Fold these 4 entries.
Entry 1:
Amino acid sequence: MSSEPSEKSLRRVQKLVDSLTKKSGTTTHPDDSVTEAVVRGLANNIDALGKPLCPCRFYPDKEAEVKHRTWICACDDMQIYKYCHCLLFVNEEGLPITEYLPEGHEGRTSYGLVRDPTPELGRPLCAKAEERERERKERPS
Ligand code: SF4
């Protein structure tokens, strides 16, 4: 995350952030340095891999992870549960939405129950929750 991302990739990520906050009814983190670090990480991954792979996780094989798509922003957890573990998409207090996460998910353990202030927005893939939960258990990444 230390190298300088290209302007082009930064612009692409900024567009993604603007669009996703609107669609999901979330906001970026009140501490701008949190947002900036994640945005730069996503842009760096676009430069290196061609896709905005989530910068907040460890991947044994990044190329394979890109093909898998689970952690390409907006990742499955964001599209299914409205949960952003990088804290890029959060509520006004800077907390990630955890209301829809299954029991035992790391987000619930870390933040407790955080209600969705805009339940009418986002979660376009909510029907895939069962499939995602199976994957989370079988292929932790
Ligand atoms: S957790 Fe998901 S939504 Fe949040 S920055 Fe990473 S890929 Fe994007």
Entry 2:
Amino acid sequence: MNRRSFLRTAGLATAGAALLPSLAYGWTDLGRDRLRIGFIATGLRGQNHLELMLQRSDVEVVALADPQAHMMEQALELVRKAGKTRPKVYAEGPHDYLRMLERERLDAVFVSSPWEWHRAHGLAALEAKVAVAMEVGGALSVQECWDLVDASERTGTPLMALENVCYRRDVMAVLHMVRQGMFGELVHGQGGYQHDLRGVLFNDGKSPYGKGVEFGAEKGYSESQWRTDHYVKRNGELYPTHGLGPMAVMMDINRGNRLTHLTSMSSKARGLHDYVVRQGGADHPNAQVEFACGDVVTTTIACAHGETILLTHDTSLQRPYNLGFRVQGTRGIWQDFGWGGLDQGHIYFEDSMKHSHRWANTQEILAANDHPLWARYAASAAGAGHGGMDFFVDHAFVECLKRREPFPMDVYDLATWYSITPLSEKSIAEGSAPQQIPDFTRGAWVARAPVFGLNDQY
Ligand SMILES: NC(=O)c1ccc[n+]([C@@H]2O[C@H](COP(=O)([O-])OP(=O)(O)OC[C@H]3O[C@@H](n4cnc5c(N)ncnc54)[C@H](O)[C@@H]3O)[C@@H](O)[C@H]2O)c1
């Protein structure tokens, strides 16, 4: 089928989208073994994905769009090093990605742009019928989430949420154990983004980490150019998906279960100001900046089947890295305390541990319950970003497209997870008032089956 006749068929096929959305995509123009891939944004995260794509023989990187010359140059250097053909470059300002989408007949595009661009970039790609791999963040409004869902359904074009932490080795081993019933019935989960970002939110404008107290489009570098501004203007759970994604997968959210409502509370904001004063001096102009985002924002979420999920956003104070996962059921409990190694957690099963009321270290039991996907691909993942999990999330995107399988984390998951940000802001602004979480599947969650990590293929 050529692209034109496919587009007509796609329109018909999406008529059933309201019933079983993720299975109803008419987006089937692939049929080839090699995907034509483009990149919207080639900043530091876009470059991680680019490196992984350049290693694959089933992918051709045909075009890159990014208005910042130094980021584009770094991306092109990666292509040169990999010995691949130079992709077309779209670097004529912030809207040149539109020209790329129009001209390049892409099968798929990676979107790794600042959060405030995700809506525009996602919508433009979906409207062009280009499948989207969307980096994580949080929405600016609930409407943004609906817009992505509507566009995906209307165009019959799929979008995958690139939530890499769902693929962390310890997280996947726990998922494997949850599915074997080892934790009994799940009751409560916790997670968060507990990562000292002060050295990312401020820098010297020349390098990304740990030096200087500058931020903003002119004086910052990489994330300090745009991310810090969200902390100046917004008070909420700014980065929900790393903590929520793994819990949502384990609790079958949007697939037999769903998030119903939340409440959020925020502490005072002191960490960023303290950092600026200590690093840059009390006379530095940024010492006058008032930050809206509380240093520790906690959000409690209720699920349709009675579970609760506690999310913590904690990125403005000194602290060691720990996403703070906890999975608790009637028969077992897991709690991680480190950065994701198999030995970085506590675990307890009262039956097998003879009611000792003492934690065991996770190493042995997680190793014995390695997820089949990790068991198969650990060698391929070695060296990939974030302890290997970046390999898996990108691998899933490519393999699902080639096989025309539904993505393990789709547009409904992205919309649900992204919506936590504006809803938490609203809750905090209203004195922690409960906020309803929309059902982006429009009722299909009842019948949708789990798809994440069901096999050792992707
Ligand atoms: N999953 C993870 O582990 C992880 C890690 C880091 C970042 N991220 C996410 O990745 C995204 C990007 O973060 P980053 O660290 O690469 O930031 P970055 O600042 O290094 O890169 C952003 C890039 O977007 C480009 N850009 C801005 N406007 C654009 C436009 N209109 N068209 C095309 N390009 C545009 C910028 O020029 C820049 O090169 C964010 O959503 C962030 O939350 C995820």
Entry 3:
Amino acid sequence: MTRKNINKPDIKVPPELQHQVAVTTLDKIYNWGRASSIWPMMFGLACCAIEMIITAASRYDFARFGMEVMRPSPRQADVMIVSGTVTKKMVPQIVRLYNQMGEPKYVLAMGACASGGGPFKEGYNVVSGIDKFLPVDIYIPGCPPTPQALLHGLIVLQKKIEKEKLSTSEWYKKEFHEEIPVPLLGPDLMDPRKFSLYMEKSKTVEEDQTTIDISESSIGEV
Ligand code: SF4
């Protein structure tokens, strides 16, 4: 956002002060600061991560947009770029890292794998998109997306941030507490929120099994 965009056009600044004073709203200046310093978390999952690394390097250089500080700690990161194939083994760690990021936080699904499973969709070990677990703000198509596409996604995220309002932001509300239950990896992925449902289902299966056993044994007796 330029200085011109920050100024409220309906408030006239005297000509002698125009290069030194900007009159604006709290929302605009706050969003300008946040959108101009989005720090991504430093982690990658598969081939898409190489494109993300290239985007950070000198040719594309996303430092130009205030995103140069890739953080190795989720506590200091604003955006999680999910760059690569999300496996069932990795999802618990990704969700845990997301929970450890401070609000406001954003998620960018980079590439076909992170957005929907990609070429490995329906694979026994692959999750069909990170949006099954995390709220995704921006999806970037491609396999892999080019560095230009990632830059475009980040710019779209900046535009989204610029439209946010302090008065309606969820994360400043007292009652806001969004912790996503970390899925458990057993024979398959389990969502802790659905435990009672799993128990009910396993009971039904056990009962069915008993019925089959009884009827089979009675056939044997006859
Ligand atoms: S979308 Fe393509 S390039 Fe990206 S991680 Fe999946 S297979 Fe690799």
Entry 4:
Amino acid sequence: MTRMNARLREIPYNYTSFSDREIVMRLLGEDAWGTLDELRTERRTGRSARMLYEVLGDIWVVNRNPYLQDDLLDSPRRLNLLVEAMHHRLNEIEKRRTGDASARDTKVDELLHAARSAVAAFENQYAETRSLRRKVMRRLGAITRRDNIQFDGMARVSHVTDATDWRVEYPFVVVHPDTEDECAPIVKALTDLGLTIIPRGGGTGYTGGAIPLDRLTAVVNTEKLDTLGAIEQRVLPGTSGPCAVIRCGAGVVTKRVMEAAEAAGLVFAVDPTSADASCIGGNVAMNAGGKKAVLWGTALDNLASWRMVGPDASWIEVERLEHNRSRIHDAPLARFRIRRFEPDGSTLRGEETLEVEGKRLRKEGLGKDVTDKFLGGVPGVQKEGCDGLITSATFILHRMPKHIRTVCLEFFGDVKRAVPAIVEIKSYLDQHPKAILAGLEHLDERYVKAVGYATKAKSRGRPRMVLIGDIVSDDENAVAEAA
Ligand SMILES: Cc1cc2nc3c(=O)[nH]c(=O)nc-3n(C[C@H](O)[C@H](O)[C@H](O)COP(=O)(O)OP(=O)(O)OC[C@H]3O[C@@H](n4cnc5c(N)ncnc54)[C@H](O)[C@@H]3O)c2cc1C
């Protein structure tokens, strides 16, 4: 069989997006694919190859299915039968070897050796998993409710991916802390147990940040940290005059904060399109923003303070000083007081003030520069959960001017000619004496199609671009004139 007419997939039961090559390399090692490829070109009956693929298919289908794993964990007898069947096939391959120490026979021997190791690793994983699950339950069970610690198929499957739908590994365990106080001891226990920790909110992220890449991963789902405080008037450090603020647990759904603000006649400016499902911790970790970013910035611009647990289970409290109550890059200098506490949450380890030039926190002309993970050293924000677990955050709220008009512009024809309109609209309203652009949403062609956008000009087909702008002012005539 030549390379050209080789079947693309020979490993059976593989319903995943992984190719044969990836599976062979994952289970038998990097070099095994090359060896198999060489043998394939001189394949005789193909029976040995088929049996090897069946063994790999058995391992792969179980490794990719947490429900089958649960079944085998519950039934050592069924696990033994499966492993015996795998050994039987490998023994049959062994019998077919020529044993003449030829180059071909040596390659078959190498593959058989790798396959036996893969079967042993597969079998041993069950004993390891049982033992590690017991240890995790013992350590975490002393910190949080036992039913907040989940190993079952359902929990693992629902935390394998995010909005990207990219899948690599299933998490080993999913933990749902009930309170902020549980978070530091949970982080400490998981680190001591050698597990990789991934914080997670609503799982709407588009960067794959919440996706486990390692089998021994603990996903900390923050959705139970859903305490939403009352709106308070507070004088923020280094400012004069009260400012409306709201304290949110990391797991509060973004939309709930928007609704609370709206009910008080105020605006919560962090408004990603995913607000119905995203959570506050995820918003901070991604520095999320939406339509209102044009006026009030993204999460970073609106944070008054936040709390998080560092990788060493210490507490970090960050407070913005002299908040300019507007976009952070408009302030010449953004200052943050960072206080670090021991894992007990009350013994102060140290305090520092971080100063970052406002303009360094945002790339010229961009809402946010997602490539800048360091972000001037500000902890938590835009870090995708890499430097700690955000447990709560306090945001400033804004007052919306009395009058608002939403303008919708549909663009047909050449997109290149439509795009400059975004800058033109912004420049026009930046110079307007009384009206302000409070939000500008851009829907590109794919988005317009995906949401089934209903155009106002049906005869012209589907628009290539749509802009939705909110124009606001306390002067009704100014809004009407600008719109
Ligand atoms: C339909 C759709 C529309 C979207 N629209 C927008 C938009 O308009 N603007 C925008 O900015 N984004 C948008 N997004 C992207 C996404 O919704 C945001 O990034 C959102 O902030 C993610 O929040 P989440 O709670 O779902 O986070 P998750 O997906 O759960 O996690 C995202 C990242 O944050 C980390 N993280 C989550 N919680 C914590 C925590 N408590 N502590 C530390 N790290 C944490 C995770 O580890 C991961 O790296 C959209 C996504 C979708 C699917």
